[in-house]
Amino acid sequence: MRDHTTSLHYPPDVLAQARRRRLKRVLIAVLLGAVVAAYTYGALDQRVIAEDRNDLLPQWAEALLLGTAFAIASLPVGWSVLGRILIPVPTLFLYLSVFTGKEPPLPFTAGFILALVYAAALTALSAYLGDRPDRRLFGSRR
């Protein structure tokens, strides 16, 4: 029977590379979460209809929650699926209020379709970042 404690020892340079990759993935997730939060805050600020500004939370809190959910969903860990569950519905409602509440407003059908596209794109991007962060695009044979 093999001793599992001795089989897990790797050279220090391999461990250092693994730490750098892990840190890079976490930093990319946090950075993109901040970008999503900033973009959402800017989009929410474009609403001019007073009814659309009567939210349960302030605009900065809504944007911060969506950015945090995106960052969590983009992490390369098993529980990041919780963030992916949280992204589609709030994104749909937030961006629907943005598209139908700006000046000039989009028709409801077009706003709904665009909000669906935003929700699907954020969910797909977070799933890609969380599931396959090291996949090489060009020049790889693996």
Question: What report would you give on this structure?
Answer:
- α3 (59-74) packs parallel to α6 (108-131).
- It contains six helices and no strands.
- The chain has helices spanning 4-7, 12-44, 59-74, 81-86, 88-101, 108-131.
- It has 142 residues and is mainly α.
- The model has no long low-confidence stretch (mean pLDDT 84).
- The protein has one domain (14-129).
List its salient traits:
6 helices, mainly alpha, 142 residues
* H/E topology pattern: HHHHHH
Please provide the count of β strands: 0
- Structural class category: mainly alpha
> Which word captures the global form?
elongated
Overall mean pLDDT: 84
Uncertain regions spanning at least 5 consecutive residues: none
Q: Helicity, in percent?
A: 55-70%
| Beta fraction | under 5%
- Strand count, sense and closure of the main sheet? none
N- and C-termini, Cα separation: 32 Å
